[in-house]
Amino acid sequence: MIGHRQFVKLIAGAGFVLLAGAAAAQSESGYPNRVVKIIVPFSAGGGTDLMARNIAQKLTEAWKNTVIVENRVGAGGIIGSDAVAKAPPDGYTVLIASTTTAINASLVSKPPYDLRKDLQAVAILSTYPLIAVVPAASPFSSLQDIVAASRRKALNAASGGNGTPQHLVLEMFKAATGADLNHIPYKGGAPAVSDLLGGQTDFMFSLSSELLPLIKSGKLRALAVTTEGRLALLPEVATTSELGFPGVVATGWNGLMVPAGTPNEIIAKMNAEVTRIMSVDAMKSRMVEQGFLPITMSVPETARFIDADAERWRKVIRDANVKTE
User: Who's near 60: CB < 8 A, 6+ residues apart?
Assistant: First the structure.
């Protein structure tokens, strides 16, 4: 039989469990009630950073609660992603994920976290095309010019970092054309574009959100877009397929992920709010002007989308034998 002291301990333990459960439930239903941090695994000023700041501002307004953006740069997005994967699963540390997140699942031989086990999909925010560009003063006016010139002398091609979409599309282009291009990785799209403008590099594929203002202002010359069809904002720029490079077709995406184990109620609330925000006409127009293509998905759809993208890039990495540098 259970003694009096044991009985008291059991009752006290049960009470503690009930109180803890009630506190957790109250915390979830009251989410968010303190600062939410969105981690950007790249430098400030790039396309992923821009999307993070757009959504942070709107979530702050909607929730009447501060949502901040923090840049955790390094290792091609691994450092920032790992910080989120190892954060408490309470909804207060969020990753602005991207195509690079899916790419790193295969590109990095021993990542410090597992994409499928340690991170939970929340929502997709947008997709985006990539654009091949050169400085306005460049002697190159076409992708064919790039290929021909590189065969005479190797050219320097920038990217936002090892394993980024910019990098892998560049590798796809090199494989399709035999162009001799030295890959110069940066810690984000913004510094890569800055050096391209300064003439430190010759050429790059980069995100439309990072390039459109510079193309429109005449500082950069667009040579091609990597989408299946032409962009409404750049109707005069041909696609890579039209120019004879059908193997160089790709789009990227941005979304939100949280540490695995985050309560489903919080994930559902975040997805619902993001879906509402991205469905507002003014927000959609703003995104399109910045080079993004707004998109919304449920939580299960988001998880399937990210899994499929990771598998797609795994094949690209394998077929092109891409290695981290």
Answer: 66, 67
Helical axes 165-177 vs 143-152, angle rounded to 10°: 70
- Domain 28-128+252-320: assigned CATH number: 3.40.190.150
Take residue 165 and report the two structure tokens written for it: 């979409």
Query: What gap in Å lies between CA 187 and CA 43, rounded to an integer?
Result: 6
Predicted pLDDT at 225 = 96
Residue intervals in the chain for CATH 3.40.190.150: 28-128+252-320
What span, in angstroms and rounded, lies between the C-alpha atoms of 275 and 257? 14
Q: Which residues of the chain does CATH 3.40.190.10 include?
A: 129-225
**For residue 32, is the peptide bond before it cis, meaning its omega torsion is within 30 degrees of 0?**
yes
Point out the residues of the chain with pLDDT beneath 70: 1-29, 324-325
Q: What's residue 209's pLDDT?
A: 83
State the DSSP code for 225: E
- In this predicted model, what pLDDT tens digit does every residue of 141-186 receive, in sequence order? 999 999 999 999 999 999 988 878 899 999 989 989 999 999 999 9
Dist. CA 108–CA 317, nearest whole Å: 10
Which two tokens mark 222?
């667009």
- pTM given for the model: 0.80
The CATH code that applies to domain 129-225 is 3.40.190.10
Of 119, 151, 157, 109, whose CA–CA distance to 41 is shortest?
Answer: 119
Region class of 91: left (phi > 0), else alpha (psi between -120 and 50), else beta:
left
- What is the rounded CA–CA span in Å between residue 5 and residue 3? 6
Output DSSP code: residue 92.
Answer: S
Identify whether the C-beta of residue 146 lies closer than 8 Å to the C-beta of residue 152: no
pLDDT at position 293 is: 87
